[in-house]
Amino acid sequence: APWDFPDYDDHEGVHLFRDQASGLTAVIAIHSTALGPAAGGTRFWHYPNRADAITDALRLSRGMSYKNAMAGLPMGGGKGVILADPQRTKTPEMLAAFGRAVDSLGGRYVTAEDVGMSDADMVEIRKQTMHVAGLPVGSDAAGGDPGPSTSLGVFLGVKAAIRRAMKRDDIAGVHVAIQGVGSVGGTLARRLAAEGAKLTLADVDAARAERLAAELGAVTVAAGDIARVEADVFSPCALGAILDETSIPLLSAPIVAGAANNQLATKEDGARLHARGVLYAPDYVINGGGIINVGLEYLGQGDRADVEERIGHIPGRLEQIWDESAATGDPAAEVADRIARRLIGRV
Ligand code: NAD
User: Fold this and answer.
1) CA 228 – ligand 1 centroid, Å
2) String of DSSP letters for 48-78
3) Which domains, from first to last, does the chain contain?
4) CA 244 from chain center: how many Å?
5) Does ligand 1 have an atom closer than 6 angstroms to the CB of 180?
6) What is the pLDDT of residues 207-226, one digit of tens each?
7) Which of 14, 78, 131, 218 lies in disulfide reach of 30, CB 3.0 to 4.6 Å?
8) 212 lines ligand 1 (CB under 6 A)
9) pLDDT per residue over 265-308, tens digit each?
């Protein structure tokens, strides 16, 4: 049963949904509503078995609690998972059934898009429930594509790390190696280049990296080599789990600060980075700009200026983490979790 799962115990609840007519099987995990409605996107994914889907929902919902708390949002953490078949068949009927499932929780859970879901899917879900964010919006309102907001927060976080580790405000000539130049990494590269940073870029889509490098006067390396580049900052903006016992010893940069979710392969990798003296910006803190954008959209509070004002607090939050890490000797990743648990009233 779900309550036998090791990740269940610090959750408020886990809800299992089934709609036979549409074929929907879904999980909604609610980690915490201490600060507000449990907010977190819905993942549409094929899992080898149902237990994996429940574990994923539980872990991701806890992650959302921490992320929303650290972003200063009046929102708790939750996550939806729709179990897809191997062909990932998605129908309007299935989305409607999921919308009714979300609605049945009466606003305790608010959904948005995640892996496998689009803003068009959110429009379908919105037909059944108002507890959804991530809908297409006008250009001045909060909401819409979170990429630019995420990138702004990461940019400010990278600068905060440079300020702390290198004791300088101006980033001209500071060398940043960016892994993945998609929505977030690409915009980050542009912002850094505009202030004179020296860039090395890599992407599995090599042509994409080449194009951007030509535009910004940057250089590129093969995707497999980017973590080893002798740079001041390594900025992971592609995949999760890229910091592990193999990659960390090969890192050359004294700062790791980037957008990717779940950068640490295991909890021990936070300690490994710390032991190597790397200044690490915990991923869910530095990449909180996107959730601030979506959160304010849902709350109906604010425009782009408010989103940017809140994103402006990300460097201060990172400083708090690094200060506590320096004072206690604990890895930044652990300190971040501890501060987040404090914020949601957990010890
Ligand atoms: P994206 O798909 O637009 O870009 C990712 C880029 O990484 C692509 O260009 C892809 O080709 C490249 N890539 C994939 N594997 C790679 C590898 N092994 N080496 C080098 N490049 C590789 O995605 P995005 O929206 O820019 O998000 C990037 C990361 O940031 C993801 O981990 C995402 O979960 C995280 N994130 C994004 C947001 C957001 O608002 N978009 C918010 C929070 C976190």
Assistant:
1) 19
2) SSHHHHHHHHHHHHHHHHHHHHHTT-S-EEE
3) 2-63+74-126 (3.40.50.10860), 147-287+315-343 (3.40.50.720)
4) 18
5) yes
6) 999 999 999 999 999 999 99
7) 78
8) no
9) 999 999 999 999 999 999 999 999 999 998 998 888 878 899 99
